[in-house]
Amino acid sequence: MTDLVTDPIYKTDALIAEDIDAYLDVHQHKTMLRFITCGSVDDGKSTLIGRLLYDSKMIFEDQLEALQADSKRVGTQGQEIDFALLVDGLAAEREQGITIDVAYRFFTTEKRKFIVADTPGHEQYTRNMVTGASTADLAVILIDARKGVLVQTRRHSYLAHLIGIKNIVLAINKMDLVDYDQSVYDAILKDYTAFAHSIGITSFTPIPISGFKGDNITAHSEHTPWYTGPTLMAHLETVEVDQVSDQEKPLRMAVQWVNRPNLDFRGFSGQIAAGVVRVGDAVRVLPSGKTSTVSRIVTLDGDLEQAVAGQSVTLCFADEVDCSRGDVIAASDSPPQVADQFETTIVWMADEEMLPGRAYWLKIGTQTVSATVQQPKYQINVNTMEQLAAKTLDLNAIGVANLSTDRQIVFEPYAQNRTLGGFILIDKITNATVAAGMLHFSLRRAQNVHWQATDVSREHHALMKHQKPAVLWFTGLSGAGKSTIANLVEKRLARMNRHTFLLDGDNVRHGLNKDLGFTDADRVENIRRVGEVAKLMTDAGLIVITAFISPFRSEREMVRQMMQPGEFIEVHIDTPLADAEARDVKGLYKKARSGQLKNFTGIDSPYEAPLDPEIRIDTAGMTPDEAADAIVARLIP
Ligand code: ADP
Predict the structure, then answer these.
(1) Does the pTM exceed 0.90?
(2) Please, are residues 243 and 31 in contact by the beta-carbon 8 Å criterion?
(3) If exposure means fewest CB atoms within 10 Å of the residue's CB, which of 148, 260, 315, 626 is most exposed?
């Protein structure tokens, strides 16, 4: 097996000369191994990658260019959906000038094609490593034999394990600098084994190497006669990759699009994430749970009798079953789960901290839903594996938190299925990918709390009050005039016999929200709760008036989405900062300017003005009474 590698030029040339078709066939059907190298520059990572490239380039020097193009094609099609997801997300970011640096290198040997993700090793590059690892089948953890197991060894191993990489190679490097001493190797191995077990890594492959001298890279080194395991290259070439074991799992295919060129054909296209599908198989569509049988498996190269994990196909059913983009087609007798609340691990990748309660887009498989994350249960110190209390997650932080989605999603625990268990979070305003995450399990409370249908409906409530419910959502700087004008609006409506309720920022903070302060995270939660209360009040048929600074577009948008279409009326009380500050009715601006009051909107905390509010009130050009008249006229024409 290794003689092919040690004498590559001869073998390749011979094969090409003898039978070009056979050669191309071997090349076409070579499996792909994606791996990541972990270590800092000092550990010899660059030298090792250089050595692997050099050794393999000898084989296919002239074809390298073509193969690199090949590797790009694989990259864009996506061997795995989760990879495509992250790459899509990152491509969108690159357009906006934000880049997460991961260098992918391609090389190939007689046995296999390889893509190495080369990521920087320092803690501030955790997100880079996670990005690189998210597609990897194997991780090479490099150790400098002179230094042994270091903090970064632990961090890299933890991250690789977290991302679900099952094959870990412990490359104990620079053996030449410790005189190929077996006792050094054994001591490091003992150390690492104890650590690996403590974080749940059950097996790994240790190899003593010298990237610089080439020991045990492609040929067994005469300097380490005590080592009987495989060389690094032989291991990389023969280790079993996930694609094989994926086929043994139950069928999972996330529907990418519905293929309906004419009335006679209706098929569901996507990449099979796990399992095998055959014509005649009983399948179930989730989340609906409807069942049918597979009538055809269509590909560009014609129909198939069966298809396996990794293949992109179009499935046709024997029955007319509802199925659309984002749904998952699964084996009928062992379907994945459906839920809307989860425990998750989240790797935060954005410069801005995570805001618990804020709604982000969540992409999982081919599903996109709105999701909010709760305050983390804890954050993990990636150097010591300690669990720390945390209110939020900063750039590169990893934490465990509950998450809820606005509708049911089809999922599997990440440990079982990376495609249906791995997700990314996207900021709704900037479109930046802000986090990668893994679903652990669904929360039981989500399964046990059902929506109780009540007999007196929201329509009934509104009818009894002879009005159409609405939310007049006032937003603006402190002192802009929200409370003053809201109060006048409510008085006018009361005179017209309308049933109203005014929710005022200061008042709510005395009761429902008295546990919240003025950090960004608390402001998000403040508005989320007020939004939920306003929603219940509209269900009761009321016209709700809210007077909160509500500084962030995201949360105002979130509340808008909670309401029935047309019921949310955003009212921007547009007073320039200088005017509000000059009024300073509560003396708060003075306090903020002198530093006695932190996080004050307009001073040291941002205010994001509405871009397209239903009503804009310019208080410089209107008295409070005129403003109130204008708003009432708009609400009740
Ligand atoms: P907010 O609720 O937005 O913090 P308030 O209503 O408590 O603001 O305070 C606004 C102050 O500005 C009040 O004292 C109000 O009398 C004064 N004011 C002056 N001109 C106007 C105007 N055109 N519209 C609203 N308020 C005004």
Answers:
(1) no
(2) yes
(3) 260
- Is 455 contained in some domain? no
Atom of ligand 1 nearest to the CA of 478: 4
Q: State the residue for tokens 């009050």.
A: 465
Q: Write the CA distances from 182 to 179, 215, 414, integer angstroms.
A: 9, 14, 38
- Predicted pLDDT of residue 553: 93
pLDDT at residue 629 greater than cutoff 70: yes
Number of domains in the chain: 4
pLDDT of residue 19: 60
Judge whether 3 lies within some domain. Answer: no
CB 145 within 8 A of CB 175: yes
Please state, in angstroms and rounded to a whole number, the distance separating the CA atoms of residues 190 and 184: 10
Phi then psi for 97, rounded to 5 degrees?
A: 85, 10
Integer Cα distance of 248 and 236 in angstroms: 22
SS3 278: strand
Of these residues, 550, 554, 594, 605, which one is catalytic? 550
pLDDT of residue 418: 84
Asked if residue 322 and residue 264 are part of one domain, the reply reads yes
Instruction: Indicate which CATH number applies to the domain containing 378.
Output: 2.40.30.10
The domain containing residue 192 runs over which residues?
8-238
Distance, CA of 44 to CA of 55 (rounded, Å) = 16
* 550 is annotated as an active-site residue: yes
- Return the HEC string of 396-430: CCEEEEEEEEEEEEEECCCCCCHHHHEEEEECCCC
Helix (H, G, I), strand (E, B) or coil at 343: strand
83-120 pLDDT, tens digit per residue, is 344 444 444 444 444 445 667 777 888 888 888 887 77
Residue to probe by mutation, ligand 1, list 477, 478, 484, most atoms within 8 Å of CB? 484
Percent pLDDT > 70 in the chain is 86
The token pair that represents 37 in the structure block? 């190298």
Residues 482 and 627 in one domain: yes
Within 6 Å (CB) of ligand 1, which residues are found?
476, 478-485, 547, 573, 583, 585, 619, 622-624, 627
Burial of residue 225 (number of CB atoms within 10 Å: 0-12, 13-18, 19+): exposed
Which of 274, 303, 331 lies at the terminal end of a domain, its last residue? 331
Mean pLDDT of the chain: 85
Å from CA of 500 to ligand 1 middle: 21
CA 166 to chain centre: 20
Measured between alpha carbons, how far is 320 from 323 in angstroms, rounded to an integer? 9
Is residue 323 within 8 A of residue 386, CB to CB? The reply is no
pLDDT at 8: 35
Angle at 211 between CA 234 and CA 103, to 5 degrees: 85
Q: Which two tokens stand for residue 333?
A: 């007798």
- Say if 30 falls within a structural domain: yes
Q: Are residues 413 and 525 in the same domain?
A: no
**What separation in Å is there between the alpha carbon of 479 and the centre of ligand 1?**
5
CB count in 10 Å sphere of residue 306: 14
